[in-house]
Design goal:
The chain is mainly alpha-helical. Helix content is about 75%, strand content about 0%. It is built from 8 helices and no strands. α2 runs antiparallel to α3. Its main location: membrane. It is a multi-pass membrane protein. This is Sodium-dependent phosphate transport protein 1. It is found in: Membrane.
């Protein structure tokens, strides 16, 4: 919710970059936080979570501006599949990085992926544009195709958000609970599953 509000007020591009920068910086500083104290570690993960939380809603604003309505489902699926692909790739590579001597072993996982996040921030700054109209090299045919396949003019002023109805809506709380539960189970599985494989099944980090 916060990411969407910030994206509509200040722009989706800057919201995504700020969120990714906070998350990447916290990722890089995680080894230092772990060596310092548990409280610093918790604070660092909180900052990383705030940064990551800004991105999905801001992405929806970018998608609404750029993706034609008839292609939005496919394109959003391709973009969001990056979460799964990233988890798969990092899961395979993290074990080998932990066992290596590169950048101290396990801290290298945080340094490398945090550094990649900062590089991605730079890529977004250079290549990402808020709307098709603001892109300096878009063709007229491409611009017309995108604009003609949007359900409405996204630049129009929107009516005020009905916060009271939202905060008193039972379906809203039901969906919120379902999403929280799904992410909680997923995060718990990602946290506990490697421990189970190592301590119970006796798999090595590389396996």
């Amino acid at each position: 919710m916060l990411g969407g509000l910030l994206a509509e007020r200040y722009g989706a591009k800057i919201t995504i970059i700020v969120g990714l920068f906070l998350s990447s910086l916290a990722h890089i500083l995680t080894p230092v936080a772990a060596w310092t104290s548990s409280n610093v570690m918790i604070a660092m993960q909180l900052i990383r979570g705030i940064g990551q939380g800004l991105i999905p809603a801001a992405h929806c604003v970018v998608a609404a501006n750029w993706f034609p309505m008839i292609e939005r489902g496919l394109l959003n699926s391709l973009v969001l599949s990056g979460y799964c692909v990233g988890a798969l790739v990092s899961g395979f590579s993290a074990g080998s990085m932990c066992l290596s001597s590169f950048l101290g072993g396990w801290p290298s996982v945080y340094y490398v992926y945090g550094g990649l996040g900062l590089i991605l921030c730079l890529c977004f700054q250079v290549f990402l544009y808020e709307t098709p109209k603001s892109h300096p090299k878009i063709k007229d045919s491409e611009l017309n195709y995108i604009l003609q396949n949007q359900e409405r003019d996204l630049s129009q002023k929107r009516p005020p958000t009905p916060w009271r109805k939202i905060l008193t809506s039972v379906p809203v709380y039901a969906v919120t609970y379902a999403i929280f539960a799904a992410f909680w189970v997923g995060a718990h599985f990602l946290s506990v599953h490697p421990i189970f494989l190592g301590t119970i099944m006796h798999f090595s980090l590389q396996e």
